[in-house]
Amino acid sequence: MRHNKYEQQKIVQIADRGIEACPKADWTVSFETKRQMPQKTWGVCNRKTRILRVRQDLCEVNFLDTLIHELRHAQHPVLFEAEEFISDTSTELAIALLATGRVRAFPKG
């Protein structure tokens, strides 16, 4: 079981592609335990509160895949409707990023 890999929350800036000028807004990324998340859920994007929740106990590829997935939902309201596309491309991006050896989802050690 993986605990305390990250601080509990980070603030990130995400451009809202649903708005013409694409202003950036602060979002909170919250790293959660399995118990803190809805059942059978790896991540959640709440556009109203601007909070992304991601389970921190996932393996590296699933963690990165889920983080990318939720970030993409945050970028555009239409992407809430494109679940299959988001799922497929997020997994592909996570695998490709990790395969480069230049990106790590978890700190070494």
What do you see in this structure?
- The protein is 30% helix and 23% strand.
- It contains two helices and four strands; from the N terminus they run ββββαα.
- α1 packs across α2.
- It is α+β, with helices and mostly antiparallel strands and 109 residues long.
- The longest helix is centred in the last third of the chain and has 17 residues, at 83-99.
- It has one domain (9-99): Arc Repressor Mutant, subunit A (Orthogonal Bundle), CATH 1.10.10.
Keywords:
109 residues, alpha+beta, Arc Repressor Mutant, subunit A, four-stranded mixed beta sheet, globular
Secondary-structure element order, as H and E? EEEEHH
Task: Name the structural class.
Answer: alpha+beta
Computed Rg: 14 Å
Query: From the 3D coordinates, which CATH architecture would you assign?
Result: Orthogonal Bundle
Widest beta sheet: strand line-up: 1-2-4-3
Note the quaternary state here: single chain
CATH class: Mainly Alpha
Low-pLDDT ranges: none
- Tally of strands: 4
Write the layout of secondary structure elements.
Elements: E1 9-15, E2 24-32, E3 43-46, E4 51-55, H1 60-75, H2 83-99
Parallel strand pairs: 2-4
Antiparallel strand pairs: 1-2, 3-4
Helix pairs in contact: 1-2
Short précis:
By secondary structure, this protein is α+β, with helices and mostly antiparallel strands. It is built from two helices and four strands, in the order E-E-E-E-H-H. It has one domain: Arc Repressor Mutant, subunit A, CATH 1.10.10.
